[in-house]
Amino acid sequence: MLATFNSPHTDMSSPRTDIDASWNAETLRAQCKAFLDGTIASKPYLCVASLSTADGRAIALASARRDDDANRIAAMASSLLALSESFSRQILRSPCKYSMLATEHGVIVTVRVPSAKRMHALSIAADNSEMLALVLRHALDTAARLAGILDRSPL
To answer: For residue 95, which of 81, 109, 108, 107 has the smallest C-alpha distance?
Structure first.
């Protein structure tokens, strides 16, 4: 004899809201990915743009290289953001606006996306052909535009 139980997946009388939620999450990911792809394509000095949740889950990645790991980048970006925010509160008793890493090959800017929920981080990497101030401005503007996309989402 087979046992039966009620769950949203076996009870045919109730609609499966998990399908709708999954579709919305995938739609949001696709919109963010398309936006980041356009961002990378529009500026030749940009190498990587990564949108992640503040707790390190990848939402979207656009990269000029094909071998970047979205999950690994998201985890590192959220760790960097958390460390920067803790450090700025400890040292200056002030919230962190963004974090910048300067390397031999370029710069990485990580900002918290200013959406209503403030649950996302954006990291943008650029080669050293552009001035740091312009890369920072581009990262802040991109984060603001992503906030508009995220705030329109039902998620």
So the answer is: 81
